[in-house]
Amino acid sequence: MSIVKTASAHYLPLGKQGKGKVSTQSGALKNQPYGFNTRFEDEPGTNPEELLGSAHASCFAMALSFALADAGFEDGELSVEAYVTLEKEGDGFSVVKSELVLDAVVNGIEEEQFKEIAGGAKENCPISKVLNAEITLTHTLNK
């Protein structure tokens, strides 16, 4: 089974003065502005790193939720933030890290079991698999 989801971007004119718009198939994003000023300054809009972070955080949260349910834990709550790091490399830039920070409430689970399940979800969420950057996970388990 294959699932294909689409997103689109339009950018003009070229270079720093250009402005872009990004949209998703679902309509969750529709002509959302992005560009140099939204990426490197504080102009309203989005940027690729923020979009990647939202994809990684949501994918990991869903993967962990399913893994916990499969292990018999269905009462809980997960909050995930992703900090995506963009660094200058030579004449360009590279995404070098996606740090997942997890705050979890999972009733009845022990720390070691939670750590093992969370680590497996980090490794196996589809967005983690596609990234070549370092992927870290910091978590808090609240009981």
Automatic annotation (TrEMBL):
The UniProt GO MF terms for this protein read: peroxidase activity
Question: What InterPro entries does the record tag this protein with?
Answer: KH_dom-like_a/b (IPR015946), OsmC/Ohr_fam (IPR003718), OsmC/Ohrsf (IPR036102), OsmC_Ohr_Peroxiredoxin (IPR052707), Peroxiredoxin_OsmC (IPR019904)
Domain of life, per UniProt, equals Bacteria
A Pfam family of the record is OsmC
Task: Show the segment(s) annotated as Disordered.
Answer: 17-48
Listed under GO biological process in this entry are:
response to oxidative stress
Query: NCBIfam families in the record, alphabetically?
Result: osmo_induc_OsmC
The name this protein carries in UniProt is OsmC family peroxiredoxin
Lineage from the top down?
A: Bacteria, Pseudomonadati, Pseudomonadota, Gammaproteobacteria, Alteromonadales
